[in-house]
Design a protein that fits this description.
Layout: H1 3-18, E1 22-32, E2 41-50, H2 65-68
Antiparallel strand pairs: 1-2
């Protein structure tokens, strides 16, 4: 794998983490392009990241979430 690809991968992860995301998985695939007559490889990056958001507190009813949840598969 090309050092430039790995450098770009690190840069993408740094930018995503700087935006407050937690990178949980990353896959970099390098391949020869079937659409190009050049010998230069291409790459795709698949990044999985998570970012928790705090609730704004707008759902502060007297009933708890468990009492209003009608999901038949949830154990109470």
């Amino acid at each position: 794998m090309d050092d430039a690809m790995l450098s770009d991968q690190r840069e993408l992860v740094e930018r995503i983490e700087a935006a407050g995301w937690d990178v949980t998985d990353l896959e970099l695939s390098a391949y020869d392009s079937p659409w190009s007559d050049e010998d230069a490889p291409e790459a795709t990056v698949t990044i999985t990241a998570r970012k928790p958001y705090e609730s704004d507190g707008a759902d502060s009813d007297d009933e708890s979430e468990d009492e209003t949840d009608n999901n038949p598969f949830r154990l109470k």
